[in-house]
Amino acid sequence: MKFDGMVVVITGAGKGIGAALAAAYAAEGARIAAVERDAELVKRTVDRIVEAGGHAIGFTIDVSRPEEIEAAFAAMDEQFGRIDVMINNAGLGNWKSLYDLSLDEWDYVLNTNLRGTFLCAREAGKRMRENGGGSIVNLASTRALMSEPNSEAYAASKGGIVALTHALAVSLGPDHVRVNAISPGWIENSDYDALREEDHSQHPAGRVGRPADIVRACFYLTDPENDFVTGINLVVDGGMTRKMIYEE
To answer: What are the two backbone dihedrals, phi and then psi, of residue 184, each rounded to the nearest 5 degrees?
Structure first.
């Protein structure tokens, strides 16, 4: 149990990848700070961990609000006294035509996904510096590398996260803080059995991804023994961004 006793902060921990990460790190002995804007969802995550014998505390905040981030990290200081791993997973999109997307809607996506990631990384970095180091993982997306229509705000935010990651890795390296990104592809968070064969077969790996695939990637990047890995963007997409597609 490489993460036994470590404090792991996970944003967007109420469902999907974030909830899977919280449960997996708790099962490995980590103490979890589960951050989520939906109080009911974060309570569900915390309750499941506690019922399984793990340790978790929920923090209900909106990461687009800097003052709420600062208050949450101050509360974590009281509850945990340190931070070893920070996983910036919270994120959202707005799939409107660029002609209809308002500036407020654009700002909310960027402030949640990109600015929220920066602020949480900075708060975590302050504490890791005092405790001898740590690991930060930022969840980007393959939308940082390729796009569909009407994804401008989301793509911009995720591309920003990839660039932010290598900048943070260089800035925080002297403090023994490693910073990496993961860019998931299609990760199915709901009914996996409802997927079609054509959904799986379009992936070179032969299947659509699961949250557990991202969990294993996070375990690799936050393993204290992997201290030579920093500043990377690990694409976990079943090979889709390497597949050329021609229309017949």
So the answer is: -75, 150
Fold of 7-242: Rossmann fold (3.40.50)
Give the pLDDT confidence of 62-121 residue by residue, as tens digits: 999 999 999 999 999 999 999 999 999 999 999 999 999 999 999 999 999 999 999 999
Q: Under a CB-based contact definition with an 8 Å cutoff, are residues 173 and 181 in contact?
A: no
CA distance 184 to 170: 23
Compute, in degrees rounded to 10, the torsion defined by CA atoms 66, 71, 76, 77: 110
Give the predicted TM-score (pTM) of the model.
0.96
Write the secondary structure of 33-74 as one string of H (helix), E (strand) and C (coil).
Answer: EEEECCHHHHHHHHHHHHHCCCEEEEEECCCCCHHHHHHHHH
Asked about 99 being catalytic, the answer comes back as no
**Distance of alpha carbon 22 from alpha carbon 41, whole angstroms:** 12
Q: Which two tokens stand for residue 34?
A: 């589960």
List the structure tokens of 196: 């079609």
The separation between CA 18 and the C-alpha centre of its own chain, rounded to angstroms, equals: 7
Catalytic residue, from 25, 108, 154, 246: name it. Answer: 154
Host H or E run for residue 221: helix 211-222
